[in-house]
């Protein structure tokens, strides 16, 4: 059932002042940078869905298969009665896998793409008709007040897709701390993290043969033109992907293919040929890095699972610096990691008994 709560209605004006500010400041600074979260208007959210189906984009299908094979273990470790709060829920593509296993008393999807949020919630409510669902429209980078209906319920945060990779390390640490605040003490968090791997796998994942990622990147310029009265000549930009090995990140840029002048919301900008706008970082983490990141962000890892090829990790953590059963948990985490390395994990996922 889909429930509307008055205390959660957030109204956005037609021009989002935060978008305007980020674009104007970002284009005025050097290097020119626009935060990746502005990709996700309606068109951008749909383009990202198309990316998740690309043969080169191993991220989505690897995480999905991994989640299918470990969802029951997650449910067992989380225990019963936890409300699930998903950060950046988007299309909620992987959510049914977790909901079927955990059977939470309530589900709270949080996303900035409003239409997308409601449509996905609508679809999920049909799949899980008995589960209360409270969509929250908002930016999860800021501390949010969760719907009063889940007050008093323990929580399991869900942050899949390696979305955390969009943030630089200090911002990721801040976000993890914000999530701990939003979720409250005693909470758990299941986070998906993409691993460092050979650039021959990474680069095509962000520069696919069909050019969907290019369209996704360029849509940001169309969005600027649409929403901020821009005159950016989109055809004078091209999509560029690079692997920054020192920073262990994929970078996406929009490069001017000729000298250009344009206006955005009364601001005038000039770019010379070859200059870029840095539109996305996608940080990748080594086997131990992600657990250090979680600890720095105020979470204690309880278990980590990876696919056989070590492309992707799922980490389950509890809020707080120290887990009460640290010694035994560490042991079980180690054995779980060993297990997931030694064992081929199937991707058969039966959602028929979803409710
Ligand atoms: C949604 C942030 C996880 O970094 O892999 C995909 C976004 N950008 N292709 C990623 C994205 C280009 C994606 N995340």
Describe the structure.
It is a single chain. The radius of gyration is 20 Å and the shape is globular. Helix 6 links the parallel strand 5 and strand 6. The protein has a domain of 202 residues: Rossmann fold. The chain has 355 residues and is an alpha/beta fold. Helix 2 packs antiparallel against helix 8 and helix 3 packs parallel to helix 4. A seven-stranded mixed beta sheet has the order 4-3-2-5-6-13-12, with helices on both faces. A four-stranded mixed beta sheet has the order 1-11-8-7. Strands 9-10 form a two-stranded antiparallel sheet. The structure holds N,N,N-trimethyl-histidine. N,N,N-trimethyl-histidine binds next to strand 11.
Put the structure in a nutshell.
This protein is an alpha/beta fold and 355 residues long.
Task: Kindly list the characteristics that best describe this protein.
355 residues; alpha/beta; Rossmann fold; seven-stranded mixed beta sheet; four-stranded mixed beta sheet; 10 helices; 13 strands; 36% helix; 21% strand
């Amino acid at each position: 059932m889909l429930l509307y709560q008055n205390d959660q209605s957030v109204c956005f004006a037609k021009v989002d002042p935060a978008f305007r500010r980020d674009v104007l400041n970002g284009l005025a600074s050097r290097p020119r940078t626009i935060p990746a979260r502005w990709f996700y208007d309606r068109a951008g959210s749909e383009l990202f869905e198309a990316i998740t189906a690309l043969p080169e984009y191993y991220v989505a299908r690897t995480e999905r298969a991994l989640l299918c094979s470990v969802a029951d273990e997650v449910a067992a470790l989380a225990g019963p009665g936890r409300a699930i709060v998903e950060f950046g829920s988007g299309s909620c593509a992987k959510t049914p896998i977790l909901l079927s296993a955990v059977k939470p008393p309530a589900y709270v999807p949080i996303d900035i793409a409003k239409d997308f949020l409601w449509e996905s919630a609508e679809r999920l409510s049909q799949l899980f008709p008995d589960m209360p669902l409270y969509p929250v429209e908002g930016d999860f980078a800021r501390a949010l007040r969760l719907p009063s209906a889940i007050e008093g319920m323990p929580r399991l945060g869900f942050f899949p897709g390696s979305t955390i990779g969009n943030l630089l390390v200090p911002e990721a640490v801040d976000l993890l701390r914000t999530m701990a605040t939003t979720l409250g003490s005693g909470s758990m968090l299941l986070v998906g993290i993409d691993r460092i791997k050979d650039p021959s796998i990474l680069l095509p994942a962000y520069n696919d043969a069909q050019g969907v990622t290019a369209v996704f990147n360029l849509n940001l310029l169309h969005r600027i033109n649409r929403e901020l009265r821009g005159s950016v000549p989109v055809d004078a930009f091209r999509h560029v992907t690079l692997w920054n090995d020192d920073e262990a990140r994929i970078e996406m840029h929009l490069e001017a293919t000729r000298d250009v002048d344009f206006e955005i919301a009364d601001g005038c900008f000039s770019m010379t040929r070859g200059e870029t706008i840095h539109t996305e970082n996608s940080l990748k983490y080594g086997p131990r890095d992600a657990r250090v990141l979680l600890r720095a962000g105020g979470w204690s890892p309880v278990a980590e699972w990876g696919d056989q090829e070590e492309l992707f990790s799922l980490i389950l953590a509890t809020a707080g610096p120290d887990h009460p059963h640290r010694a035994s948990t560490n042991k079980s985490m180690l054995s779980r990691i060993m297990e997931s390395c030694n064992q081929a994990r199937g991707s058969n996922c039966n959602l028929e008994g979803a409710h």
